[in-house]
Design brief:
single chain, about 110 residues, mainly alpha, 6 helices, about 75% helix, about 0% strand
Length: about 110
Amino acid sequence: MTPSRFNVSPEWGLVMVTALWGSSFILLSLSLKGLSPGLLVALRFGGGAVLMACLLRSALFKLKKVDWIAGCATGTCIFLGYFLQTVGLQTITSSISAFLTALYVPFVP
């Protein structure tokens, strides 16, 4: 492996990802001033679906029925989680929402 000019330590990578993740709560909170929670989450998921369909279009034709069912079930659960979290952002601050969401880290193990 050749050394890269952009050699970033794993710790700084985590800091950057955390900053992006944390800023998403602020952006969601600001977006809710002009959009309903359902429309906002639908736009996010719709945009992601279109992007992934464009990037992986050849793989989509190779999927079996069971793959589509599992993917739709997983996507529905994630959609509902994001939707409920976005509805919650209408009544609590983005910092509290981020804190409650981050509690999955110690609770999962």
